[in-house]
Design a protein that fits this description.
11% strand; 4 strands
C-alpha cells in the first residue's frame, strides 16, 4: 500500500507504533484511557514491549513481557502481535512510510468526532452502533450506502459491523486538513527506533474533511 501511495497520502492504522523497552507504559495509552473514562478504557490494549516482537507463541510473548516489564501480555495484545511486527518493520525500513503511516485508536477518533465527549454505549451494543453511525453520518452523509456496500463484500465473521465503523472513523480522521490533527500526548515521546508513541485525533471536527479514496 505504501509503495503505491503518493507522498501526500496518509495511512492511519489502529496498531501500536513506537514500542516501550521496559516497564513504563506508553503515555499515549495512558492519556487515551483517561479521556475515554473507566467504562471505555479497556478498549485501549497495552502496547507490547519491543522484545516480545520476537515471540512466536503466546507463552514466549508472555514470558518476555514478564521479564521486561514485570507484567504478562494479554491475549488481545498477542493476537495483534503479527500486525505490530509488520508495521514496526515497515516503519523502521521505509522513510516514505514514516511520513504517512500514523497510529489512531477508533474510540479516540469517535471521542474527538463527538466534540471530545465520551460516548454512552459500548461499540458492540446496538445503541453503541447507532451512536457511532450517527456521528459518522454527520461528517459523511453517504456512510449508509458505503456501509451497505462494504457489508456485502465482506462476511460478518471476517469483518464485524463495528470494525467497519472503526475503519470509517479512522478514514475521516486521516482525510482531515492536517492543521486540524492533534496527538495524544501533545508532545509525543520517541521510542528506541525514533518512532513516535502517539495517537492522532481530529481536534476540530467541524470543517468538512476531504474525500477519502474509494
Amino acid at each position: 500500500m505504501v509503495s503505491r501511495a503518493d507522498d501526500s497520502d496518509r495511512i492511519f492504522v489502529d496498531i501500536p507504533i513506537g514500542l516501550p523497552n521496559g516497564p513504563e507504559r506508553r503515555l499515549c495509552d495512558r492519556e487515551a484511557r483517561r479521556r475515554l473514562g473507566a467504562r471505555r478504557a479497556g478498549s485501549v490494549f497495552p502496547a507490547p514491549v519491543r522484545a516480545a516482537l520476537t515471540a512466536d507463541t503466546y507463552e514466549d510473548a508472555n514470558r518476555i513481557s514478564r521479564e521486561e516489564t514485570g507484567r504478562g501480555m494479554t491475549r488481545q495484545t498477542f493476537a495483534i502481535l503479527p500486525r505490530v511486527r509488520e508495521v514496526d518493520c515497515l516503519l523502521r525500513n521505509s522513510e516514505k512510510a514514516r511520513h504517512m503511516v500514523r497510529e489512531v485508536h477508533p474510540e479516540i477518533c469517535f471521542w474527538a468526532l463527538a466534540g471530545r465527549s465520551r460516548l454512552r454505549n459500548g461499540k458492540k451494543t446496538g445503541g453503541g452502533f447507532d451512536e457511532r453511525f450517527a456521528l459518522l453520518e454527520g461528517f459523511r452523509p453517504s456512510v449508509g450506502e458505503e456501509f451497505a456496500r462494504i457489508r456485502t463484500e465482506f462476511r460478518c465473521w471476517d469483518v464485524a459491523d463495528d470494525d467497519i465503523l472503526d475503519a470509517m472513523a479512522a478514514a475521516i480522521t486521516a482525510s482531515a486538513d492536517p492543521v486540524a490533527l492533534k496527538t495524544l500526548p501533545a508532545h509525543p515521546t520517541i521510542d528506541s527506533h525514533d518512532l513516535p508513541m502517539e495517537m492522532v485525533y481530529l481536534a476540530d471536527p467541524h470543517p468538512h474533511p476531504r474525500e477519502w479514496d474509494q
